[in-house]
Design goal:
- There is one protein chain.
- The protein is of the alpha+beta class and 124 residues long.
- The chain is built from 2 helices and 8 strands; from the N terminus they run ββββββββαα.
- A hairpin with a 2-residue loop joins β2 and β3.
Length: 124
């Protein structure tokens, strides 16, 4: 099994999985999710099939789909089909990463305002 054949971005309806190698293991990373939260893909006995360890689909099977030449062209996670896309195309596709909240800067003034609001709510 050549893990590098699996590497790349796979897309389905706004969800992107970036398959890569980390510490010798195959992992799936999602855009916008901090490093350290990758989903480990543990090989199963069936060729091109893995089990997800971690993430929202923990325990699901992952099967890489290949063309006649043996190149990975997609993957199936449970009942969902992801299509392998080029690196260039992956940058233009909408993903949930755009839904991340803005950075929150809790200044002393904001903290005081929140405390007053909380106190008023608890008083009623």
């Amino acid at each position: 099994m050549d893990k590098k054949n699996y590497f790349g971005s796979y897309y389905m309806m706004g969800m992107m999985l970036n398959i890569q190698e980390m510490d010798g293991n195959l992992v799936a990373a999602m855009p916008g999710v901090p490093a350290g939260y990758e989903i480990e893909l543990s090989p199963l006995e069936t060729e091109d099939t893995f089990q997800m360890k971690g993430g929202p689909a923990d325990g699901s099977s992952v099967q890489f789909m290949k063309n006649e030449e043996g190149d990975a062209i997609g993957l199936k996670v449970g009942h969902f089909d992801f299509t392998k896309v080029s690196e260039e195309k992956s940058k233009s596709l909408p993903t949930g990463a755009a839904l991340l909240p803005p950075e929150f800067d809790l200044t002393t003034e904001k903290q005081s305002s929140f405390q007053k609001l909380l106190d008023a709510a608890l008083a009623h």
